[in-house]
Amino acid sequence: MPKKPLNILLFAVDSLRADHMSAYGYRRLTTPHIDRLSAAGVTFNRCYSAYIPTTPAYSSILTGKDVMSTEMVALSPKGPIDEKIPLLPELLRPHGYASIRVGFGGDFYRGFDRWLSYGEGWLAWEDRPARKAENLNEVAIPALEELAKSGQPWLLFMRHMDPHAPYLPPAPFDRMFYSGDPCVDETDTMGPVRNFAPFADFHLSWMPPGIADINYVVAQYDGALAYMDASIQRILTRLEELGQRENTLIVFTADHGETLTEHDCYFDHHGLYDPTLHVPLIYSCPGYLPVGQRVGGNVLHEDLVPTLLDMLGLGGKGIQRKFDGHSAMPLIRGEAATFHSEFYITECTWMRKRGWRTPHWKYIEALEPDFHQKPPVELYNLTTDPLELHNLADAEPAVVQHLANRMRSWVAKRLTQTHKPDPIMQYQMGLDRHIGSIAVAQKLQER
Hints:
By secondary structure, the protein is an alpha/beta fold. The protein is built from 13 helices and 16 strands.
C-alpha cells in the first residue's frame, strides 16, 4: 500500500478506439507517449464500453454502476443521475480529496469541487486547425498546479475531445500520415459519406471541399491522436516537474471508440460493433503497480471506480457490494481471469439497439428500424469473423435464440434488483434524425 494517499490523474478521452493506438499494436505510431505510459504500467487488452454513447459511458465510469442502475442510456437523458448514487469525487471527498474536472459543461457529473471548460473544438474546414488538446492544457495544467499546491490528495479528471469529429489537427499532424491530394481519387471512396443524408452536411463541413479519398479522413483521425498524445505528454511532464509523479495513479481510458469506415457508420460512434466498443485502459503508478503488464480478461467501465478505490486502499472487504462493477486488482494479481465472460451492450444515439457479447459471439437486436437499414437481428462469430462482416442470424437460429434468452434473463434479473424500469425502453429514436451543422452537433454533445 502507498505510504500516503495517492493522487489520481484520469484521462477519459472521447471517441478513442483502442485499435488505432500504437500502444495496442496499430501499424502507425500514433501514441508514442501513451505507449511509454503503457510500458510503465498495466494495460488491459480487452476493456469495453458496453453502453453507447457518451452520457451512459461517463456515467458508468464515474459511478461504478451499470446502465440499469444509472438509467443513463441515451446521449440526452431524461434526468440527472440518481442522487442516491455517489460519483467518484463524492466517494473520495470524505478521505480528504480535492477534485477538478475538465471538459464537461454544467454540473451533470456532480460532486467535483470545480469544473472547467476549454476552447472551441467544433470547427468547420475554413476555421481549421482545431487545437483541442492545447486548449485543454491551458486550463488543465493550472488546475494541476493548483491541486499540487493544495496539500490534499487530489483527483483531476480530463475529457480530451481530439478523436471526436471534426478531425482537424494542426500541422504537422494533419500531414503526418498522408501525402498527396485528398481531392484526387479515381475510385472516389467518399461517395457513401456524401450520400448518407443524416450526416453528410456535418461531415462535409469539416472536410476539404471536393474530397474524394476516404483514407485522408482516417489519416486525420490518426493525426489527431498523435497531436493529442504530444499534448498529453506536456501534462505528464508538468506532473513530474511538480514532484507529484511518484505519488500519482495515472489512469488512461475512453468513453467509447469511433467507427471510421466500417459498417456504413462513418466517422461517428454508433453501431454496437467493436470499433466503438473496444477502448483503451491503462493504469500506471510507479512502485505500486506492475510495470509492462498486459491483462487479458474483460473489463467494463463500471469496474473503474471499484478498481480505483481498491488501489487507493479505500474499498475494504465490502467494496464489491457497493458497485455493479468489480475491482480489477485480482486480474492484475493473476487471481482471476475475468469477471465478464459475457455482457450486455446497448446504444441509444442514432439507433436504439441492445445485445449480448460473449468471447465467441455477438448478438445485436434492433428495438426499432434504423436509418442505416440494418437487419433487425445481427449475429457475428467473433472468432472466425472479428471484423463482424458476416451476419449469421439466419444461418444460426439456435445461437440467436440462446443469446437472446441470455440477454433477456440478465435484463429481467437487473430490473428486479434495481426496482427501476428498463431505461432503453423509455426512448424512441425514429428515422428523421439529422446533423445539419457544427452548431447542432455541438449542442448534442453538451453533456
